[in-house]
From TrEMBL:
GO terms for cellular component: nucleolus. Pfam families: NLE, WD40. Coiled coil: none annotated. The lineage of its organism: Eukaryota, Fungi, Fungi incertae sedis, Zoopagomycota, Kickxellomycotina. Residues 87-104 have a biased composition (Basic and acidic residues). This is Notchless protein-like protein. SUPFAM superfamilies: WD40 repeat-like (SSF50978).
Length: 535
């Protein structure tokens, strides 16, 4: 029996589904069956399926789950019956458009085996932010980027006034003003353990800052010929703790078309990558080791003990994406397909790479804190990739109005082309659990896509001007957006509706970030004010 044919193909066949039963097999994303084949009511919703699955798995405490049939999520309060009806309607539309050449023979759904894949969701729920608790004044030009530290305890911002600033989240007051750059500071990035903040500027330099003192660490990192566009730290779980200090490797991309990888301990450039023929707009590290160097022992023994380096990904205005071995800067492969500039990149493991060893945080007084932190970071990465059974996925957004979903380690061609935006795609990001992709566009909309297949899910309407940036809540249930229209908006992913409108800024809002703890949101923009939002 083919489980892929589980969905009936004729809407008339589902008229009595709500009172019928369905042969169902629960299966994890790792491919493991949970319990025997069951006769389930077609009227069951995802909440009722969660109750059944929790009993099958003998969970002591109830765990919420997301369910998928043929890679399509069973959302909201809809029943299996309603799910099949909706799928039939979509198949009928495809048949009318000529996309479906062959119609599958009609069979009763109760006689087919339905494979229901499941994925655990966050046990906790993040509450939507509803009010502005503080206006943090200090910057004298537009706030260009805000970012919480990996553990959510600190907040940093950068501005057109040439400064980087740290803010006290307990008192919601200024903490340190960091001066040194001589032009706009365009980007900032926290090291995986939160002990260093890197900043990139239009003065062509990268600087490192100590968040506990506000002082610059060492000398500026000099070498780029034009301004810095993006910064990325090597993932915590790939750091070689065997004699090499953590937070060693930082990558910077530039308008000059190059990427430089720096040894931050020595404040010197390890090498420069010059393979792109136009501005490099985005740089990030993957959490997976290069294919020729990846072994099971390296991925499960508590870290990268062999000195094997990681993979660097770059996107450029030359329309290409490139993968590099960060050990030596050698090109691994080029991903081509976009017809215009690549504006933005995101990796499916992005959230766990950002939060590193935190959430949950290791005991502060542990005698072996370093190894505990390393193991926590590694476990989080293995969980999001199902112990490397589910490869990291990459999504790219472009000036050609499209997005591509890639399996970058295994394929040179995209696995899906994501169409729908009517203007350039400005920002893309995976949800923390990698189940969704959200995209922001200059067409004033946000779109949600399936994080595994790239399938279009919905459009979120509400902004009346271009949407600049997005931020997910740590439980993947809420999405936040900021726009040229001076507002922030909170969206409910399950119901795919507007949860709340957050006016308050007096001009364009350029940047937004949601604390990993979920209790605070920070935003900044053209009005020079950094706002803190709470529930």
């Amino acid at each position: 029996m083919d489980p892929n044919s589980a969905i009936p193909t004729d809407a008339s066949e589902t008229s009595d589904l709500n009172t019928s039963t369905i042969l169902a097999q629960f299966r994890s994303f790792e491919g493991n069956d949970a319990g025997p084949v069951l006769n389930l009511s077609a009227g069951f919703t995802s909440d009722q399926l969660s109750i059944v699955l929790n009993k099958l798995l003998d969970n002591e405490a109830a765990v919420p789950y997301a369910f998928y049939i043929d890679q399509v999520e069973l959302t909201g309060t809809g029943s299996l019956h309603q799910f099949f009806e909706q799928q039939n309607k979509e198949k009928e539309k495809q048949t009318e458009k000529g996309k479906s050449k062959n119609k599958v023979d009609s069979t009763n759904v109760s006689e087919q085996l339905v494979v229901i894949q499941y994925r655990p969701q966050a046990l906790y729920r993040v509450k939507p932010v509803t009010r502005c608790s503080s206006d943090l004044v200090g910057h004298t030009e537009a706030v260009l980027m805000v970012q919480f530290s990996p553990d959510g305890s600190m907040l940093a911002s950068c501005s057109g006034d040439t400064t980087v600033r740290f803010w006290d989240l307990h008192t919601e007051t200024p903490l340190f003003t960091c001066k040194g750059h001589t032009n706009w500071v365009l980007c900032i990035a926290w090291s995986p353990d939160g002990s260093i903040l890197a900043s990139g500027s239009m003065d062509n330099t990268v600087r490192l800052w100590n968040p506990k003192t506000g002082m610059q660490i060492g000398r500026p990192l000099v070498g780029h010929k034009k301004w810095i566009t993006s910064l990325a730290w090597e993932p915590y779980h790939l750091t070689n703790h065997g004699g090499v200090a953590r937070n060693r490797k930082l990558a910077s991309s530039s308008k000059d078309g190059t990427v430089r990888v720096w040894d931050t301990n020595k404040q010197q450039c390890l090498y420069s990558i010059g393979g792109h023929t136009a501005s490099v707009t985005s740089v990030l590290f993957m959490g997976t080791l290069p294919p020729q160097q990846h072994t099971s022992s390296e991925s499960n023994n508590g870290g990268n003990k062999s000195g094997v380096e990681s993979i660097l990904v770059t996107g450029s205005q030359d329309k290409t994406i490139k993968l590099w071995n960060s050990a030596n800067g050698k090109l691994i492969k080029t991903l081509a397909g976009h017809a215009h500039w690549v504006n933005t990149l995101a990796i499916s493991s992005g959230y766990v790479l950002r939060t590193g060893p935190y959430d949950p945080a290791p005991p502060a007084d542990s005698d072996d804190k370093e190894n505990i932190e390393l193991n926590v970071a590694l476990k989080k990465f293995n969980d999001i990739t199902f112990n490397n059974k589910l490869p990291e996925r990459l999504v790219s957004g472009s000036d050609d109005f499209t997005m591509f979903l890639w399996n970058p380690l295994n394929d040179k061609k995209p696995t899906a082309r994501l169409l729908g935006h009517q203007k350039l795609v400005n920002h893309v990001c995976f949800s923390p659990d990698a189940s969704y992709i959200a995209s922001a566009s200059f067409d004033n909309t946000i779109k949600l896509w399936d994080g595994h297949t790239g399938k279009y899910l919905c459009s979120l309407f509400g902004h009346v001007a271009p949407v600049y940036q997005l931020a997910w809540s740590s439980d993947s249930r809420l999405l936040l957006s900021c726009s040229r229209d001076s507002t922030l908006k909170t969206w409910d992913v399950a119901t795919r509706t507007l949860k709340g409108d957050l006016p308050g800024h007096r001009d364009e809002v350029y940047t937004v970030d949601w604390s990993p703890y979920g209790d605070k949101v920070a935003s900044g923009g053209k009005d020079k004010v950094l706002k803190i939002w709470k529930n």
